[in-house]
Amino acid sequence: MCGFKSTFSVKIAIALCVLTLVVPITAADAAGGFHDHSSRAERAVEEAAAELVANEDGPPGVIVVIQRPNDRQVIRAGVANLRTGAPLRVDKHMRLASVAKAFNGATALSLVARRVLSLDDTVGKWRPDLPHEWTDITLRQLLNHTSGIPDFSKEEAFLEALRASLLVAPPPVQLLSYIENPEPSFTPGTEYKYSNSDNIIVGLMVEAATGRSYERALRRLVTVPFGLFETTLPSDAELPRPFVHGYQRDDDTGVPEDVSELVAAGWAWASGGVVSTPEDANEFVRRYVAGRETDSKTHAQQFQFIPGGSSEPPGPGTNSAGLAIFRYETRCGTVYGHTGNTLGYTQFVSATADGKRSATVAINAQLTPEPEHNPVRFAELRELYELAVCAALD
Fold it and tell me: Could you tell me where the DSSP H helices lie in 18-63?
């Protein structure tokens, strides 16, 4: 749902308290040992996070989780709620936006490992009800965004329907009906083009293959075995409590509006509707990148990358696209993961190939390279991603 702007104005008195710290391990932050002093790499993350939220047009808050084999550090700046000044915590819920695509990939690849699905299975095999132009497009092409299927979320018909019914989303299959011309924009498998439609179709194929809802399959194959008990895929706009409030600045006044519960998650569904916590997101990416719930053959195919295939928004360093995963080659080393952005939130999750080191960064504002979403601050956020990766690999 990248690019959708709120047309509602919620006036908020801003009392932005900039707090930056490496927090001690608590019950909410438990994972390994604790260093009694910050490393140079961690201090760089602290400083970058503080600078980002100190900008007048920066996000209200930033939370960073840095995981290494024997310890985890949590760095926070700013607030989770502008009205109350409540702090960010790793157990507060947020919208994961397109990081949900990695969960979608984990579900589908788990079924591939179980031989319920094959990466060569076609849309026509499992969903003959979808446009005939997509009949021969494979699960592999959907997962690595080489299908060429137009992005439903960029269609004017979708945007009109969304504005008319923010809180009630249609059935998932109807999201694809907003595509005016279903003809792929190139021969499937020959080019890379990121599309939210791909993951909606993957979710529908999962439903057809399992005979159950995608939400149930996600829970059975991913969230439960991964131990992600604060991760859900809701259809409505309500967020589980406690949650980090997401904000977007009013176009005219520049005042941040609380857009946390403005849009039903069903409008993004398997492509961007997952709700989780920084703690769960960090645990997910470690297990996902390491291939904990798949087999070695499937995992090897997932890690075949398309150079130049960038996540949206871009992750740190040089981006390449795999199957529902991206490779980020940074100045400090290589990690794998996903990014996401939606109204009020921008996310980044990453881990090393063995899953032992990870860096997760979340903010409560939508920043992207696009002119309407503050590209200057996004450039600073992208540098923060890289600093967090460097700290994880330190």
Answer: 40-54
pLDDT band for position 6 (cuts 50, 70, 90): very low
Residue 369 DSSP one-character state: S
CB-based contacts of 299-302 (< 8 A; 24+ apart in sequence): 299/109, 301/119, 301/140, 302/105, 302/109
Q: Are 42 and 284 in contact (CB under 8 A)?
A: no
* Kind and range of the H or E run holding 99: none
CA–CA separation, 231 vs 233, rounded Å? 7
Please report, for residues 17, 52, 57, 59, the alpha-carbon distance to residue 20 in angstroms, rounded to integers and kept in the order given. 10, 11, 18, 14
Q: pLDDT per residue over 321-360, tens digit each?
A: 999 999 999 999 999 999 999 999 999 999 999 999 999 9
By the 10 Å C-beta count (0-12 exposed, 13-18 middle, 19+ buried), 156 is classed as exposed
**Total-model pTM:** 0.92
Per-residue model confidence as pLDDT tens digits over 273-312: 999 999 999 999 999 999 988 999 999 999 999 999 999 9
In this prediction, residue 293 carries a pLDDT of 87
Residues 6+ apart with CB under 8 A from 128: 135
Tokens found for residue 115: 């031989």
Ordered by start, the domain boundaries in the chain are: 93-372
Structure tokens at 116: 């319920």
CATH number 3.30.565.10 given to 93-372: no
CA distance 343 to 394: 33
Contact between 142 and 199 under an 8 Å Cβ cutoff? The reply is yes
Go through the chain and tell me how many residues it has.
394
As beta bridge partners, residue 363 has 62, 346
End-to-end CA distance of the chain: 35
Distances (CA, A) of 359 to 113, 311, 335, 355: 27, 16, 9, 11
| Residue showing tokens 């607030």 | 79
